[in-house]
Amino acid sequence: MGYHCSLRAWLPALAAASLAVSSNSQPTTRIDYLIIGGGPAGLVLAERLSQRAAKNVVLLEAGPDSIDDPNVSIPAYYPLIQDKKPNYVTEPDANLGGYAPGIAQGHTLGGGAAVNGMAYCRGSSSLFDDWAETSGNEGLAWDSMLEEFKEVSRYRDPPHADYEQFVNASGYGNGPVEVSRSSGLTGFEFPFARAIEAELGLQQQDLTDGTGIGIDLGLSSIFAKNRTRSHPRNTFGIIAEGRPNLQIIHSARVTKVHFEGTTAVGVTYQFGGEAVEVEAAEIIVSAGAINTPRLLMLSGVGPREKLEALGISVVSDNPEVGANLRDHPFSIMQLQVTPEVLTVWQWLSNETQAVIAHEQYAANASGPLGWNNGYSFAAFRLPDSAWPEGVDNTHYLSLPEDRPHVLIQFSTVPFIPSPNSTIIAWASLMQPEAAGSVSLRSADYRDGPLIHTNFYGSEGDKAAALWTYKKLREILRRPEVSHLIVAERYPGPDVISDEAIWAAMGQQTYSFRHAVGTAAIGKALDSNWRVKGLKGIRVVDSSAFPFPTTCHPQAVVYALASRAAKDILLGDSCKK
Ligand SMILES: Cc1cc2nc3c(=O)[nH]c(=O)nc-3n(C[C@H](O)[C@H](O)[C@H](O)COP(=O)(O)OP(=O)(O)OC[C@H]3O[C@@H](n4cnc5c(N)ncnc54)[C@H](O)[C@@H]3O)c2cc1C
Ligand SMILES: *[C@@H]1O[C@H](CO)[C@@H](O)[C@H](O)[C@H]1NC(C)=O
Ligand SMILES: *[C@@H]1O[C@H](CO)[C@@H](O)[C@H](O)[C@H]1NC(C)=O
Ligand SMILES: *[C@@H]1O[C@H](CO)[C@@H](O)[C@H](O)[C@H]1NC(C)=O
Ligand SMILES: *[C@@H]1O[C@H](CO)[C@@H](O)[C@H](O)[C@H]1NC(C)=O
Ligand SMILES: *[C@@H]1O[C@H](CO)[C@@H](O)[C@H](O)[C@H]1NC(C)=O
Ligand SMILES: *[C@@H]1O[C@H](CO)[C@@H](O)[C@H](O)[C@H]1NC(C)=O
User: Fold this and answer.
1) What pLDDT score was predicted for residue 181?
2) What's the CATH number where 491 sits?
């Protein structure tokens, strides 16, 4: 009895009692699907593919389990996470005056979604329609992705939030990942939003319903009631745990994919100081936008000249692997605020506030520890008047009308050490023109990747970044918000000329940690997620994004993996 070529043929999950998340086992059965990486993409795939009881699924994750780590589960603690959040060193970026911003990635079951800031957004619908067109995968179009968003997530309103926020919950279903608004406010959200409204004429929107442009008071991947992080490990990981046909092995880092000719046949992974080899019928790489191209290149898949220069024998010449690295680069301002603003500094360093905050959270999950330290943001287009004469803005003007060029946001997490209570605010490019790249330093898997950020790498990008940073400063000087600000600490009031502002921006420019695109569907991959020119190997994760989303990307990683699981199962059921 074969499967019909229909998703209805999915078998229900088998209930079983075996412990699936383990740190000391090796796969013992024939592996149908070997997933590399346990971030949102990898764990969604593991859960979805293992719904087919006849398929044996193994997931290998390089990092540890963090199900019991309070720094992961308590939302306000996310800035404290260190060991599960390696910051990859990047090359000095000439566009930033030689500063090297670095790119952090998650390294634990849950991936980036276990260590991130929990902002939950989806952005402009037209982006997904573009993805579908350029990749040839119709399932990526907005209408189809909306169904995936509904399958993977649900919205719940926090029981005691006493402020108004527009939430369009019609874009949510009853999926495992819980999304909520904050249960309280730091005091900066509304003043910032009002100043933006007054300066730019934007309205409050819910940027998870397909809308791209507007002011958003923010939704987050936090369980509404108990105020803990909702992430792949404690949602999809829990659902799949115990299935006899799934093994999730953490602290297991894959160092090489093996090929016979152009067919992937297995991997080597490092586990407890030993190299273990396993065979698999199908390999799915979900190691994130830095480590997916890195592993492919270590295995001989990538740009021929770069691989040969390092002495790596080429399995497949694929120049798109590691190319097309895009992020949401941003430049910060840092400002000291009045004590009424409930910043990280207040709950961490102000003795009185610290005691109250811990009591509130322990009593009934109330107070600032149950928030992700406060944020609100706005995504918008540059007006025509913003473009300096002679600057090539064709990339920006070619983007559909619903597509924001830039985003401004605040957070109460300081980036520059300060003895006082401060916030940061930043100006970020959301649809950058210039791309960077990921490649290798050597053929040794222990050497870090070689990353060229190329932030603000075109004259259009540079003009957009400078204009937005200056506009952000004007917004923060408006009366709606300025009464909360004691002083601008960075760049500081004496930094006035465009040259001085640009230099200051370069020193304080960061990756939003939204790296994508380094093994893009339609470029490095065919329309069904297969690495072009090879058999038995796919990529499903943030590397597969053809172009960045218009706001925070994690929501889209879950939905993309949910879609890909259908494509994979359908394709495999139908092929003979
Ligand atoms: C610090 C930080 C803050 C962020 N803030 C936000 C936010 O607020 N909102 C938002 O929407 N997005 C945010 N993001 C981005 C978001 O978390 C990522 O886009 C998302 O996690 C990408 O998912 P992924 O599955 O593609 O890869 P990842 O989440 O990176 O998961 C990849 C996994 O693969 C593992 N891995 C890598 N190499 C190997 C190997 N060789 N063998 C085995 N396992 C391997 C890694 O350890 C990791 O766990 C943030 C990211 C970071 C790092
Ligand atoms: C939580 O973060 C703090 C500060 O970085 C660190 O000292 C502590 O060890 C972390 N806890 C765990 C369980 O990793
Ligand atoms: C809510 O979102 C749905 C799509 O999820 C959209 O069709 C609808 O227009 C939105 N409603 C409002 C009031 O914005
Ligand atoms: C918080 O609530 C969610 C949803 O009810 C639940 O799955 C999770 O286990 C809870 N977390 C903690 C730490 O209590
Ligand atoms: C510390 O918290 C107390 C109580 O809320 C507040 O009155 C005081 O101003 C805070 N101190 C500083 C330096 O912000
Ligand atoms: C939490 O408990 C405190 C008393 O300990 C109470 O004042 C407050 O209203 C409660 N808040 C919520 C959100 O239940
Ligand atoms: C900043 O903090 C330091 C150290 O607590 C304090 O001495 C100083 O007065 C503060 N500055 C301002 C402007 O509040």
Assistant:
1) 98
2) 3.30.410.40
Residue 1's pLDDT is 26
Write out the two tokens for 19. 């412990």
pLDDT at position 462:
98
- Going by C-alpha positions, the residue among 454, 218, 205, 486 that lies closest to residue 336 is 486
Q: Is residue 300 classed as helix, strand or coil in its secondary structure?
A: coil
Contacts of 283 (CB under 8 A, 6+ apart): 33, 34, 36, 257, 264, 266, 267, 536, 537, 538
Q: Residue 176: is the preceding peptide bond cis (ω within 30°)?
A: no
Low-confidence ranges of the chain (pLDDT < 50): 1-20, 23-24, 575-576
Confidence at residue 370, expressed as pLDDT on a 0 to 100 scale = 98
Q: Which residues are annotated as a binding site?
A: 254, 553-554
Same domain, 506 and 388: yes
Closest-lying ligand 2 atom to the alpha carbon of residue 70:
13
* Catalytic-labelled residue, pool 231, 250, 328, 552: 552
Interval between CA 8 and ligand 7 midpoint (Å):
64
> Is there a domain that residue 275 lies in?
yes
Q: Is 552 a catalytic residue?
A: yes
Binding-site positions for FAD: 254, 553-554
Which atom of ligand 2 is nearest the CA belonging to 82?
5
**76 lies in a domain?**
no
CA separation for the pair 433, 511 (Å, rounded): 15
The residues, ordered by sequence, that sit 6+ positions from 477 with a Cβ below 8 Å of its Cβ are: none
How many domains is the chain built from? Answer: 2
Looking at the structure, do residues 423 and 321 belong to the same domain, yes or no? no
The verdict on residue 568 lying in a domain is yes
Burial group, residue 59, by CB count within 10 angstroms (0-12, 13-18, 19+): buried
Read off the tokens for 6. Answer: 């229909």
In terms of domains, do 337 and 482 share one? yes
Is the minimum distance from the CB of 420 to ligand 7 under 6 angstroms?
A: yes
* 514 part of the active site: yes
Q: Terminal CA-to-CA distance of the chain, rounded, Å?
A: 14
Q: Are residues 208 and 254 in the same domain?
A: no
Ligand 2 pocket mutation pick from 73, 80, 85 by most atoms within 8 angstroms of CB: 80
CA of 421 to the centre of ligand 7 (A): 9
Full DSSP string of 469-537: HHHHHHHHTSHHHHTTEEEEEES-TT--SHHHHHHHHHHTEE--S--B-TT-BTTTB-TTSBBTT-BSE
Domain range for 312 is 7-66+233-325+517-575
140 Rama sector, left if φ>0, alpha if ψ -120 to 50, beta otherwise: alpha
| Residue 152 structure tokens | 């993977």
What is the token pair recorded at 501?
A: 């502002």
The pLDDT score that the predictor gives to residue 25 is 55
Residue 104 lies in a domain: no
Tell how far the Cα of 135 is from the centroid of ligand 3, in angstroms: 26
Looking at residue 571, its pLDDT comes to 76
Of the candidates 151, 459, 452, the one whose C-alpha atom is nearest the C-alpha of residue 327 is: 452
